[in-house]
Design a protein that fits this description.
Oligomer: single chain
Radius of gyration: 26 Å
Number of strands: 4
Strand content: 5-15%
Shape: elongated
Structural class: alpha+beta
Length: 290
């Protein structure tokens, strides 16, 4: 509790933390950046895809709608027109030309085109989300993410152990100090940021394991609470942790905060890399040959 630096086993934990960090470096950077971007996924769809149209005049339907669509897209073959039940919802039109199929949105009141149903920015967002969730390789990537999350969890736990400075230096180790362009500041920022963000990092890691390997979690819940109709089952805790993982349930301010928080692992990677480079690599280079 007072002088953890003197413990022999702590050196093993330091090395474990170091090597896991080096091994997961690019993976952590990838997951950190894509996770931050993914927070805004619903909003990007809302911002760039019209969800409603003004209810002004008569809503075209049936043959009249089909004729209006064909007049609006004379260079395309109209293969499908999907009408919606809600009166303020755009119509989705499927068009074909030269073997290529596109989906566009159509205003059935003003008889005008509203743009692509899936604009490039939303397709790019879906690519980023798939990269974050599945590494673009489906269930295989999801399983790899689960292993990566377990290693990331180990990295967080070993980092907390390595961080512990002793009771007398506790307050000093929780602040990064005055910003400076130095390896010392990078090390102190790494330590302070890591401990302040530890709870959120643990939640991200645990929920990421859950997304990849849900069965052990569900079996554990069923073991401790076998009554599936029990209103006090721990499922609510799981849902809360999942909501904390995504940060999408508490308004736009919380989402932007999660975008920033999501970059914390990337910052920890950079600051940890600087610390390792200065304290290990450069020290070896300057060490005189025997």
């Amino acid at each position: 509790m007072r002088q953890p630096q003197l413990l022999n086993w702590r050196r093993i934990v330091v090395q474990l933390h170091l090597w896991i960090g080096l091994a997961l470096g690019l993976y952590i950077l990838l997951i950190s950046v894509t996770g931050s971007v993914s927070v805004l996924r619903p909003d990007v769809h809302r911002w760039f895809i019209p969800r409603s149209v003004p209810i002004e005049g008569t809503r075209l339907a049936g043959d009249a709608l089909q004729d209006a669509v064909r007049r609006t897209y004379p260079l395309y073959e109209v293969t499908d027109v999907f009408e919606r039940r809600r009166p303020d919802t755009p119509v989705m039109v499927k068009l074909q030309r030269d073997g290529a199929t596109i989906d566009r949105l159509f205003d059935p009141y003003a008889a005008r085109d509203l743009g692509l149903a899936y604009p490039p920015i939303t397709e790019a967002m879906e690519w980023v989300v798939d990269l974050h969730d599945n590494l673009l390789t489906g269930t295989t990537g999801r399983a790899v993410n689960g292993v990566g999350a377990l290693l990331f969890l180990t990295l967080a736990i070993t980092g907390a152990i390595v961080w512990w400075p002793g009771v007398s230096r506790l307050g000093h180790s929780m602040v990064p100090g005055k910003p400076a362009k130095s390896a010392r500041f990078a090390r102190r920022l790494h330590n302070a940021l890591g401990i302040w963000a530890l709870a959120l990092i643990l939640i991200w890691a645990i929920t990421a394991v859950y997304f990849s390997f849900p069965d052990p979690f569900e079996q554990t819940i069923d073991y401790f609470d076998q009554d599936l109709t029990d209103a006090e089952r721990p499922d609510a805790l799981v849902r809360t942790l999942v909501n904390l993982h995504f940060g999408r349930s508490w308004g736009m301010a919380a989402k932007w905060a999660w975008v920033a928080f999501g970059l914390v692992p990337a910052v920890l990677l950079v600051t940890g890399g600087i610390t390792w480079w200065v304290r290990v690599v450069q020290r070896r280079k300057t060490k005189p040959a025997v």
